[in-house]
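Need a sequence for this fold. Nothing fancy.
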């Protein structure tokens, strides 16, 4: 069942929160030892006692009594926030992050955390605290990341809905690789924590993941809302109410390989084009615009601003020699690179970012939605750290193989990952549906229209 169906059944008394919790824990017990998606699971007796209390209480929201696990980068009171690092493996959170508090206020029961790469760096979910999360469609393969634990928990039926976060595809790549939906909302609609710098480091955002676009919209509506403590947060229109209103005659721009800038593993383009043909059958016009901006310029802006942000976030750990040795190589590289930059380099990166945003404003006058694959490769072997080459082209950084997610992420555009089907290798892939700022509702309506004729998560659940 999807989360909204569970919600309706709980409200109608078809089953109780205790029965749902028992079923959830049974499923986790059956499959999580193989997949390693949910970590820091709370004691069963405590969770059942909490579910009994919810059965006895008045409904507090649509999530009332529904189990959820929080990505292990966010604080949930009573649970550790390890961030995948030995430095924080035993750190217990005393308060909820704003997003978590909103989920609890809607009635969700937090049962544990979902696994993530160390500090969320890298689109492959493994870390020295909790180990590797495995893809349920091939357990020798990566689940993607950094919201890999959340995506696998959804795909394998351990959760009906989940949260995630996305700086560089972390709500899109794992959703595509696990045959579920993931959404990076318009930047600012899901506020982060009101701490530290509130102006400069605006690259990442939290967002929803689900097995249906309806659940995606319902969770997004719960997460959103301006926070007066955060100057760049913003309100947005509810998305669930109009999700069944199918869009008509959209102009959908397929950006392909960005005029040769993005290498793809064999089969990625074919899967994407087959899915686009299905979208054309829904009455939309598929177009193939030229690459709208320099991919090299976007990449330079992105890598500079990302290193600048990571250096600020992890710099205190780097400055402590006793803690620096616990940072993985990707974190050290980002920090050292970020600290080596001068103000002129950061300003140049921000100017490129601004130019690219201005270009998209004109671009969206001629198309309604842009489309790119969710990843440039298929799920790779779980023992790898990252792919080192794609189609014979060497990757020069640990994250270059995910360059395809950068154009939207750099400027905070909304993106919905939709499952696109399966390759000849039996592995799933996805598409990024990208719209202008504030088009979250339109993208969800298109995703719902797509889901109504494909239903990939329901048609092809994993059979590991």
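Here you go.
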């Amino acid at each position: 069942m999807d989360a909204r169906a569970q919600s309706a059944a709980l409200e109608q008394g078809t089953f109780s929160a205790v029965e749902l919790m028992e079923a959830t824990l049974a499923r986790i017990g059956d499959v999580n030892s193989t997949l390693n998606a949910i970590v820091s699971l709370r004691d069963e007796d405590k969770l059942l006692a909490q579910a009994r209390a919810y059965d006895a209480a008045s409904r507090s929201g649509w999530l009332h009594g529904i189990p959820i696990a929080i990505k292990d980068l966010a604080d949930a009171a009573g649970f550790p926030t390890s961030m995948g690092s030995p430095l924080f493996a035993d750190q217990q959170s005393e308060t909820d992050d704003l997003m978590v508090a909103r989920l609890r206020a809607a009635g969700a029961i937090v049962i544990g955390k979902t696994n993530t790469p160390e500090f969320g760096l890298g689109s492959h979910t493994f870390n020295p605290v909790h180990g590797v999360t495995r893809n349920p469609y091939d357990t020798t393969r990566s689940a993607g990341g950094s919201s890999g634990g959340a995506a696998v928990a959804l795909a394998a039926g351990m959760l009906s809905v989940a949260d995630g976060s996305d700086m560089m595809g972390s709500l899109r790549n794992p959703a595509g690789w696990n045959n579920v939906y993931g959404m990076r909302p318009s930047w600012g609609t899901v506020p982060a924590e009101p701490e530290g710098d509130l102006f400069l480091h605006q690259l990442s955002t939290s967002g929803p993941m689900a097995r249906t676009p309806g659940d995606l919209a319902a969770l997004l509506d719960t997460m959103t809302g301006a926070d007066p403590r955060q100057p760049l947060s913003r309100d947005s229109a509810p998305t669930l109410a109009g999700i069944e209103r199918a869009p008509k005659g959209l102009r959908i721009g397929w950006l392909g390989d960005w005029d040769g800038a993005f290498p793809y593993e064999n089969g990625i383009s074919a899967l994407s084009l087959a899915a686009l043909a299905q979208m054309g059958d829904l009455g939309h016009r598929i177009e193939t615009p030229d690459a709208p901006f320099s991919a090299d310029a976007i990449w330079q802006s992105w890598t500079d601003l990302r290193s600048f942000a990571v250096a600020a976030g992890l710099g205190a750990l780097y400055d402590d020699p006793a803690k620096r040795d616990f940072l993985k190589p990707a974190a050290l590289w980002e920090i050292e690179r970020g600290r080596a930059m001068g103000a002129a380099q950061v300003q140049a990166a921000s100017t490129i970012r601004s130019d690219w945003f201005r270009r998209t404003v004109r671009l969206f006058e001629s198309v309604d939605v842009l489309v790119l694959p969710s990843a440039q490769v298929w799920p790779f072997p779980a023992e790898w750290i990252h792919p080192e080459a794609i189609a014979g082209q060497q990757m020069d950084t640990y994250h270059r193989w995910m360059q395809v997610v950068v154009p939207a992420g750099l400027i905070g555009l909304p993106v919905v990952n939709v499952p696109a089907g399966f390759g000849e290798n039996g592995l799933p892939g996805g598409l990024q549906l990208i719209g202008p700022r504030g088009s979250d509702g339109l993208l969800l309506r298109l995703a719902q229209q797509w889901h109504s004729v494909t239903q990939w998560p329901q048609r092809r659940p994993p059979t590991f």
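For context: The chain has 15 helices and 17 strands.
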